[in-house]
Amino acid sequence: MLERWNPTVKAFTVLICVILLSFEYLVSLNLLVLAVCLLLLMFCSRVSLKKIGVILLPACIAAFGLFVTGLYYARGGSTQTMDLSSLSAMPYSVRAALSQNLYTALQLATRLLAYAGLGILFALSTEGDFFIASLLHQCHLPPKFAYGILAAFHLMPGMAREYAQVRTAFAARGLKAGPLSMKPVFTMLVNSVRWSESIAMAMESKGFCGDAPRTYYTVPRVHWYDLAAAALMVGGVVLGMLFLKY
Amino acid sequence: MSANTALELEDAVFRYQEKGKRNILDHTSLSIPAGTLTVLMGGSGCGKSTLAAVAAGLYPENGGFLESGTIRLYGQDLKTLDPQKRAAYLTVLFQNPDLQFCMNTLREEMRFCLENIRVPAGEMDARIDRAAAELGIAPLLDRTLSTLSGGEKQKAALSCLYVMESRCILLDESFANLDHEAAAQLLEMLLRMKTSGRTILAIDHKADLWLEAADEIILLEEGGKVAARGIHCKNLPEHRTDFERLGLFYPGSRPERAARPVAEGKPLLQFRGVSIRKGLPTRRKWGRTVYDAPFLVQNVDADFPAGCMTAVLGPSGTGKTTTFLSVLKQHPYTGRILFQGRDIAKMKSKELYRHIGIVFQNPANQFVTQNVEDEVCVGLRLWEPGLSDEACRQRAEELLDRYGLKRQRRYSPYMLSQGQQRRLAVLSVLAGGQELLLLDEPTYGQDARSVNAIMEHLREKVEQEGLTVIFITHDTELAAAWADKIYRLEDTALVEKSAEEVL
After folding, report:
1. How far is CA B334 from CA A34, B297, B349, in A?
2. Cell membrane: is it a keyword of this entry (chain B) (predicted)?
3. Which helix (H) or strand (E) holds A200?
4. Of B222, B245, B268, which residue sits at a domain end?
5. Would an 8 Å CB–CB cutoff place B146 in contact with chain A?
6. How far apart are CA B247 and CA B240, in angstroms?
7. What is the pLDDT of residue A83?
8. Which residues does A52 contact at the CB level (< 8 Å), separation at least 6?
9. To the nearest whole angstrom, how far is the Cα of B263 from the nearest Cα of chain A?
10. Could you tell me if the ipTM is greater than 0.95?
């Protein structure tokens, strides 16, 4: 279902939600957005749980990092400045400072998670080809770029194979090429430039012309339900901003 | 000039640099009658591929400079045609099967082609289905293109041209990387297209496959000029001298067998019960690697004698290259591989590479510097770290001179021609004084003259310096001509064959 949502509309919806969230500091809203995104992915799309987990894991680590940073170094007064205050009041003030910082930290961390949720909602439920086709028609992306991107996109597995081959060739010549070494990358890039030329010529010989009019087998359209879904999601966030307190 | 001429070049002058001196096409005039199958042959660097690109209108649009001349497709001046209209007259099937598609599956690619030439959406499915049925490629339609084999990719690319109903199909060495079987299937598709009135113009290094089907063979010489034409299978012997003068493969001729009896003594490389699987372990279960890929080679024993040239034959995709990688410890295997009687599993990689060098199918992948001379120096320095700069350069220059690359020593390796790249690769690998050279498809994209040059050179090294060469090829004639010992990879086994048997 999510896969059928028009990708351009989906992209704009996600973008608007992200912008709206960046004006608010509501922990509950952030968590709600994350939960909705995950539920949608789990029940309204074909994405496997494992994939969601793999992508969400680094986001969780980053969120935890942000949480710790917010907790100890927030501007509301850190635990170190608390040391300077009167000793007798210390347990209370530490608690107070922590509770204030805790909230800031939660705000930051959950916001990052909400962004991650929105990001994977788009990324995992959108097929590259469909997205490009939609950009072509809904955003009037010139065919030259659209098909160029598609060609590059489908060349990726070949490039990965090429890179592995170059590394093997280097190893067989007795040269150490560490995982971060630039030399195999350079060789691969030289080859890639040649490839792109060849592909461009092959496309042109098949009658492709960057700016000439062309027919389309399928034209992705924006249906009422695409807009309704967008309105529902943006509306939900706006309502949350108006009525949620924390 | 009539519409009966599919392609006509009139006094075309083309070069890559506007101010350059060397014309790739030097006052070339050529006409190809419509409805025929014509084969264009010519030595490496004679401008065949340039001619194809100019005829298809890809040059000068994508590079180069056309000084003068007119090109006509079915009587229409090429300049007046945009790519859309051009595709109705002439399309090109290129050499590299990997670089012809921009979509995910063949069906999508065919739709892309039809969209290009503005076929209404409603007609597309019918046209695709019809083409698929006629060419027998229905099983390929919905497979991901990047997972197809080289032969299947070329078939897919050809059916795209077919579905566009282009009147002339130009093949730019499209069979170069295919084994015999795949090439024969492709030829059959082409002949079917010819009977429906298409013109087919094929550029190739070898005419053997085309001989029976071709209406005419045209030989080109330097500058893309026509050296001889009107050749077909009946009058072929009269033109033998032309083939030899231009350094081309004369159809049916076999280079003289240069092989010698295999020397007695201990083999340099031995396989004992070696099994190799396709791909890497795919799954891990409870911490153990689980192999479920099919076997490429299973429980094989083989001896590769020292001071000899050994060929490994077999169709593409049967695992020849992977076997080489296993010898270099770059691909897992089971069993024992012995080098000079020592198990390579017990040797350090660095030590192994000191004895074994490899030249890959695409030598451009193994260059590590941006300068031909440095490339050799790296090879030298690697095994003699103490060598002074001066001495190293001097040695490199000597070697380059011997390999006929001295003039290009300041070039970037990527600027060399295919044949030169291969020579440089062999040179830079052997600069370290390795005893065993593994060569992967030495004929890849080269004409008779450069293949013979490289094989002769290696033969010399084998005889004088006791080098051992193992080369992979799908070219049975090459194996029969040069190899002292021939193995054929059949059904996961390495079977020893005599030269007569493989022919």
Report:
1. 49, 10, 17
2. yes
3. helix A183-205
4. B245
5. yes
6. 11
7. 47
8. A38, A41, A42, A120, A124
9. 28
10. no
Give the closest of B116, B120, B325 to A206, CB-based: B116
Domain range for A51:
7-76+93-126+221-245
Kindly tell me if the per-residue pLDDT of A138 is higher than 70.
yes
User: Least CB-CB distance to A172: which of B94, B157, B353?
Assistant: B353
Q: How far is A15 from chain B (nearest CA, A)?
A: 28
- The answer to whether residue A184 sits within a structural domain is yes
Q: Which of A157, A202, A206 sits opposite B164 (nearest CB)?
A: A206
Q: Which helix (H) or strand (E) holds B69?
A: strand B65-73
Total domains present in chain A = 2
A22 inside domain: yes
Write the pLDDT tens digit of every residue in B259-280.
Answer: 677 766 678 999 999 999 887 6
Please tell me the predicted confidence (pLDDT) of residue A208.
93
Q: Does B439 touch chain A (CB under 8 A)?
A: no
Q: Which of B290-299, B306-315, B369-378 has the lowest mean pLDDT?
A: B290-299
CATH of the domain at B83: 3.40.50.300
pLDDT over 60 at A81, yes or no? no
Average pLDDT estimate for A72-98? 55
Do residue A170 and residue B112 have CB atoms under 8 angstroms apart?
no
Q: Note whether residue B405 is domain-resident.
A: yes
pLDDT tens, residue by residue, B395-418:
899 888 887 788 888 888 888 877
Structure tokens at B454: 């490289």
Query: Is residue B262, in this structure, part of any structural domain at all?
Result: no
CA dist B127 → A202, B93, B114, B133, B306 (Å): 21, 20, 9, 10, 58
The pTM of the full predicted model, rounded to 2 decimals, is 0.84
Kindly list the residues from chain B whose CB atom is less than 8 angstroms away from the CB atom of residue A214.
115-116, 118
